[in-house]
Design a protein that fits this description.
- The complex is a heterodimer.
- Chain A is an alpha/beta fold.
- Chain A contains 21 helices and 16 strands.
- Chain A has a domain at 145-452: TIM Barrel.
- Helix content of chain A is 46%, strand content 11%.
- In chain A, strand 13 and strand 14 (404-405) form a beta hairpin.
- Chain B is an alpha/beta fold.
- Chain B is globular, with a radius of gyration of 23 Å.
- Chain B folds into two domains: 3-97, Ethanolamine ammonia-lyase light chain (EutC), N-terminal domain (DNA Binding (I), subunit A, Orthogonal Bundle), CATH 1.10.30.40; 102-286, Rossmann fold (3-Layer(aba) Sandwich).
- The longest helix of chain B has 22 residues, at 2-23.
- Classes of the chains: A alpha/beta, B alpha/beta.
- The interface between A and B is large, with 62 and 57 residues.
């Protein structure tokens, strides 16, 4: 294993695969705050060069956090196909990049190779890829999943109706859901972030959203994004949980801060299989996103992008229905500006897909970051071009509970029409029945929540 | 609301200026000045074209601050709604990058302490800087703070310069009143400039309290920049994790009203003192 590189008359020496990965990352403020980024542009290039010559087995044999110390590492390694890994263990990371982008490599090939790649390899190869590389490779990969309906079919783009209310007013939530549905948002899930995380309050929102689905025969699933154990309690008490949510991170330490573990997630899955009204087999909705480990001082000296990849590697163990990043949700100490946020969105989409996940994207920004609506829309369009499965749908793009901006109901409808994508199959039929859509375009009735009067 | 106030202020100022010009006798100029200005009025309006039931939409708009009933042109927002959104974003950004007005802190009788963050940029970009007290503040607490009380209150600007002046006065007075009614002892409340949540652990240790509560300015949203969150922890130590903190968010006039929130927080703290815990452990104990 070569960990040093001579470049422009200087020798750059790295101490570990972990350090090479960190210093090969594109500039991000979170890695700077963690004190692990490259000190100069040329050092970054020396790290990329070193990385391109590492063999996959060098990375396999040197996980960024040891197997014995970290549950995330254990899940990732135990899920790898040793057969497929051994076929490619002699490749360099540079060769892996060439393979992914080659015309000869098909979607099926990438699906197969995915089973032999650890998350560090996936993070590594994406550090050698430009924006266009990432989008172009993402287009080759598309994964379907089934909960109550099917997500990820070719030519279809789905949305989560994120109809939050600052104090969970039930009528306020339902009004925003109706508005979303009338724009065609909500086919991925009707997913509400609660302000009050008590079991009673969460159950109440589960009931009102389910009743709406039931009354109007809406083919989708509902979800209230509280802690997994709270949703489990609600489910045990008879609340209708269509999809179970949890935020995940890329180190055991950060997951402990979140209050999650393999054991809890296994228990949640088993409970959904037993008690959910959804058919499955994909019952989980996971949120990821670069930087959560840094905010919790739980990054273990690993760069944010590699931790995001490890989160994907952890997530795929439970065969989720939806996974999306929320890189951009935290703030400028993690991703400084629109440029860093857009880059993270493209990386997250590619890395999620190379893990075989039904990946969606939340191109978000907060008001204390140097980013604005223009940046968010660029991130949205580029990841839609890359074939993201779904986005959020927030009224007017303004989340009045979580205080940040995300894709709006308008953006959802626009992305569909711009790329010629349709809603999920059953949901499109429902929209046609409601007179909201014809031939994949919104009708004049769309955007009027009083169609549900 | 913020923008509305700003607009009102601007109009008032304009009126004043015009009034003065009037005194110097220039009515012509006054008229032309008014005509020169575009007046921005922020109001909730149903802008859906030909809705089935306009009343349904109007009443929906009344029960949520969410941007619904705004209609569309093609698949995009209409011009007025798009500009509304951008104006709110501009106001929210401005609220982050300003300092809290110190006269408000004097009115609240709050001593002003500091984190180690030297300026706004360091505060935003380096989490650790906002999580530790500077030396002078440590010294001040050692010398002046009341020790061994049950509850210590901290006010933090957090990420909003408007949350403290707009929401904290009512919130804090309701909280203190609630605690006093229950005969719970309270140490000297302090304001810590450019501080983040975890600084409460250091303060709790220095003043030796049972429960520490931080009232901290949330990052401004488009709907409000006055929102405060309360983070509470029982006897924090090196082993404390995030799940040990109890959080109440969205405290502001348009969310959970400050007076109501203050009373509720006092009840919660009293329970925490009884159960000697906070966070997830505390929540489970209740069930």
């Amino acid at each position: 294993m070569k960990l040093s590189t001579a470049l422009s008359g200087e020798t750059y020496q790295f101490n570990s695969v972990k350090e090479v990965l960190a210093k090969a990352s594109e500039e991000k403020s979170g890695d700077k705050m963690a004190g692990i980024r490259a000190a100069s542009s040329l050092e970054r290039m020396a790290a990329k060069l070193t990385l391109s010559e590492l063999q996959l087995k060098d990375i396999y044999e040197n996980p960024v956090i040891p197997y014995e110390h970290d549950e995330v590492t254990r899940i990732i390694y135990d899920d790898i196909s040793q057969f497929i890994y051994k076929e490619i263990s002699g490749w360099t990371v540079g060769e892996l990049r060439n393979y992914i982008l080659s015309h000869r490599t098909t979607s099926e090939d990438l699906k197969r190779i995915s089973r032999g790649l650890t998350s560090e390899m996936i993070s590594g190869v994406s550090k050698l890829m430009s924006s266009m590389d990432l989008v172009s490779a993402s287009q080759k990969m598309r994964y379907q999943a089934h909960c109550n309906t099917t997500i990820g079919e070719p030519g279809r783009l789905a949305f989560r109706a994120q109809a939050n209310h600052p104090i969970d007013n039930p009528n306020g939530i339902i009004a925003s859901v109706k508005e979303g549905l009338s724009y065609g948002s909500g086919d991925a899930v009707i997913g509400i972030n609660p302000n009050n995380e008590s079991v009673d309050s969460v159950s109440k929102i589960l009931h009102i959203t389910y009743d709406l689905m039931d009354k109007w025969e809406i083919p989708t699933q509902n979800c209230v994004l509280s802690h997994v154990t709270t949703q489990m309690d609600a489910l045990r008490k008879g609340a209708p949980v269509g999809l179970m949510f949890q935020s995940l991170a890329g180190t055991q330490k950060a997951n402990e801060d979140f209050g999650v573990s393999e054991e809890i997630l296994d228990e949640g899955y088993a409970l959904m299989k037993e008690k959910s009204y959804s058919a499955g087999p994909n019952f989980y909705y996971f949120e990821t996103g670069q930087g959560s480990e840094v905010s919790l001082s739980a990054h273990e000296g690993v760069d944010m992008q590699t931790l995001e990849a490890r989160t994907h590697g952890y997530a795929r163990h439970w065969n989720p229905f939806m996974v999306n990043n929320v890189s951009g949700f935290i703030g400028p100490e993690i991703l400084f500006d629109g440029r860093q946020v857009i880059r993270a969105d493209l990386e997250d989409l590619f890395m999620g897909k190379l893990h075989g996940l039904p990946m969606g994207i939340a191109p978000t920004y907060t008001n204390h970051t140097i980013a604005d609506q223009n940046d968010q829309e660029i991130g949205g369009m580029l990841t839609a071009l890359g074939g993201a499965n779904f986005y959020m749908g927030v009224p007017g793009g303004d989340d009045v509970m979580l205080s940040y901006q995300d894709t709006s109901y308008h953006d959802d409808a626009t992305l569909r029409e711009m790329f010629g994508y349709r809603p999920l199959a059953e949901f499109e039929k429902w929209m046609e029945k409601m007179g909201l859509m014809e031939n994949g375009k919104l009708t004049s009735r769309a955007g009027d929540l009083s169609v549900f009067d | 609301m913020d923008v509305e106030n700003i607009v009102k202020e601007v109009l008032k100022e304009l009126e004043g200026r015009l009034g003065q010009e009037n005194k110097t006798g220039n009515p012509e100029k006054e008229k032309s000045n008014i005509e020169k200005h575009v007046e921005y009025i922020k109001e909730k309006k149903v802008s859906v074209d030909n809705p089935i039931n306009v009343e349904t939409i109007r009443s929906a708009q009344e029960i949520t601050p969410a941007r619904i009933g705004i209609g569309r042109t093609g698949t995009r927002m209409k011009t007025a709604n798009y500009l509304d959104f951008l104006i709110d974003h501009a106001a929210a950004q401005d609220a982050v990058f300003k300092d809290v007005d110190e006269s408000v802190l004097k009115e609240l009788n709050l001593p002003v302490l500091n984190s180690t963050a030297k300026d706004q940029e360091e505060y935003l970009m380096n989490l650790d800087a906002g999580r530790k007290l500077d030396e002078a503040s440590v010294e001040w607490l050692k010398q002046n703070a009341e020790k061994g009380k049950q509850v210590q209150i901290i006010v933090s600007d957090g990420l909003s310069s408007t949350g403290t002046p707009e929401t904290v006065p009512d919130l804090m007075s309701a909280l203190i009143q609630g605690l006093k009614l229950k005969n719970i002892t309270i140490g000297t409340p302090v304001f810590i400039k450019r501080s983040r949540v975890w600084i409460q652990d250091e303060v709790a240790k220095l003043v030796d309290c049972d429960v520490v509560i931080s009232l901290i300015g949330e990052r401004p949203g488009l709907a409000t920049s006055k929102s405060i969150s309360a983070y509470i922890i029982y006897r924090p130590n090196e082993k404390s994790v995030e799940a040990d903190r109890t959080v109440f968010s969205n405290i502001h006039e348009g969310g959970v009203p400050p007076a109501e929130a203050g009373a509720h927080l006092a009840d919660t703290i009293s329970e925490m003192l009884k159960f000697k815990s906070s966070g997830v452990k505390f929540a489970q104990r209740l069930e």
